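Q: Sequence in, structure out?
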Amino acid sequence: MPGWQDVRAAESTPTDRGHLSSLWRQSKLVEFERRLATLDCSKDGQAAALLQTLQSETAAANDLQATQQRQVLLYSVCLYLLGPQDQICSSNVVLQGTCIPWWADGEYNDTEADRANDMGVQAFKTKRYEHAFQLYTEAIRLCPRKAAYHCNRAAAALKLHQFAVAIEDARNVLKRDSSSIKAYTRAGSAHLGLGQPEAAAAMFKQALQLDATYSAAQRGLVTALRAEGRAVAAALQEQSAALSSDRAGLTREAVEAEQATELLLTAEGMLSAQPESHAVSCSHVEALIACRRYPDAAIAANKLHAGQDKLCLQAQVLWRQADLDAAARLLSEAREQFPDSSKCLELQRWVESLQQEVHQASIAFEDGLLDHAASKYTQLLASLQPGACSGLYAWLLLKKAATLCQKRDYNAALQSLNMALEWEPENAECLQLRAEVWRSQVTACLGFHHFAAARLSHDRMHCWPVFSIGRDWACRYIVLLATLRRASWTING
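A: Exactly. Output:
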């Protein structure tokens, strides 16, 4: 049980969320006042009104936070004085002010609580479950220490299909009366309603340990075991479907952003309703790929049941991220396990063709055939849709830019890099190469600048005055002067 020193410490702890919120609000107010002073807006009527509103709202929020903190302290004192019988939340959670029971602001009137509970019982008997739920809630608020009120509300919650509420109410019952058979039974029924047969069976077994003849718990246990058996059978069926799936292969066509987002939202909704469904999980991975969220897709694909769907979708993620070698290895493994899989074969051929084209471009680059290498990368890029494989597309643009840099075609290299960063803004290699290209451009411009300046100085010394020079020197003078200006503009720009 917490000591009084712990209660006082909880009031002034610097890590209290309310205290931190107050500090944050005050800092934002001070920052706003400083900005107004910096902009010399103190005489602006609209700005002054806005500042006054912000000050009043900040003060109101701080007052509310202080009131809530006093309520936390008062409730903690009650726990200390009354002992563990009425201790609903764990001491550390309550003292931190992060979890106060919803009934903590009750009036604590035993007579009115009994009256509300009796009215709730009558409403429950007449099948007015919602009204009964409200009356039981009022009874708990007036006297939260009685387990019967929580147990009655759990029954009403079950009738209203509010299974999570029923489980929480049953837990509150067991904190006050660990021998409540009804609490275990109602918790088991709620778990069944949430599709959790294992947890339900555990609750019913606890009830039967207290009374082996309790018929409701017996029936519930039979239902839970049957549901658990169906769940196991369904899981085995999902694993079998994963091993011998006939799902179509994923398209290499780009999907519109709005359509991809809609697909992902739909898949997430279905996944929340059917988290164990292999087909739904595959659809979720495919939607993540369509949205070009490749790291998330890789994580989701790793959670799939072992089988050709998992291997194919993992390979789909890898090649779209430009990891062609890993994708090829994975597809070779898939072909060994599933030699009759047409989608694995088709994807393997596609990845191997990409590997071959990239290898040829790399050989040309190493042999100094820069034009041929750049042409190969251009052909590869033309065969892809960047919206379908942005990672690979950006990687090929990076390779093309590196080739163009070797040709000292810095403008074209920058164009490729900027295009790559449009698809993959956080690509570190593209950002690094672009910085190197900029540095090379500046160095080249400085070289032209010094050459033009030196040549111009030399010609002035040997060919002055201007009226004595010929047409060739005049043309060269103009060209050098233009070069000098262009270099200055590039550097300043």
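Residues 45-82 form the longest helix (38 residues).
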